[in-house]
Specification:
Helices cover 36% and strands 35% of the residues. The chain has helices at 2-9, 31-36, 119-129, 137-167, 177-187; strands at 12-14, 22-29, 44-55, 59-73, 80-96, 100-101, 106-110, 115-117. The protein has a 6-stranded mixed sheet. Strands 1-8 form a two-stranded antiparallel sheet. Strand 4 and strand 5 form a beta hairpin.
């Protein structure tokens, strides 16, 4: 239990008494970080996060740069694989009377807050950088090539069918009768 508390405490930043200037923090973590958070998305991983905190009288601007890798399970083969993680994100914490999330990037925190824990932000930014479709890298390159060639074929098929229909005299026979009646009215 003390190991778990110790893991999340790495992400505490004491803001009480900080001067209005820039501060840099480096954080490094692994599997224990993902185990401690109540989530099912990621179980294992290694990463480093560099946090730049710019404090002013009215707000904290936090810039997170995270690099590392996480272990994911392939959606197709169910085999584990390493997915690289690179994330550059920012969040603004404005001082106010209560805690409230305004947008994804802006939150209000109580002006009497002495310490913030940035673990949830680090996790969210890692999770957002993961691909929606979790495929092993060897399958990913095959699928990417197949997807590109299929898209090209579809575009060519549609464009050639459209040209044939527009150029053929037979396309006049396929006009909806309601449009034909409107054409007659227009011609008068």
């Amino acid at each position: 239990m003390t190991e778990i508390v110790k893991e999340l405490s790495k992400y505490n930043i004491d803001i009480y008494g900080l001067e209005d200037k820039q501060y840099d923090y480096d954080m490094e973590s692994g599997d224990a970080f993902f185990e401690e958070l109540e989530q099912d998305l990621i179980e294992r991983g290694q990463f480093k996060t560099h946090v730049v905190l710019k404090k002013s009288a009215t707000m904290l601007q936090l810039h997170f740069h995270t690099e590392g890798s996480v272990e994911l399970t392939c959606d197709r083969t169910l085999e584990p694989f390493e997915e690289p993680v690179i994330s550059d994100e920012q969040i603004i914490l404005k001082f106010g009377d209560r805690d409230e999330e305004l947008t994804d990037e802006i939150e209000i925190i109580n002006r009497n807050t002495n310490r913030i824990n940035v673990a949830k932000y680090v996790f969210e930014f890692i999770a957002l950088s993961l691909p929606v479709k979790k495929l092993h890298p060897s399958l990913r390159t095959e699928d990417d090539a197949d997807d590109e060639s299929e898209d090209d074929e579809v575009i060519l098929v549609y464009s050639s069918e459209d040209n044939e229909e527009n150029g053929d005299g037979d396309s006049e026979e396929k006009i909806d009768p309601r449009w034909e009646a409107l054409k007659k009215l227009k011609g008068q």
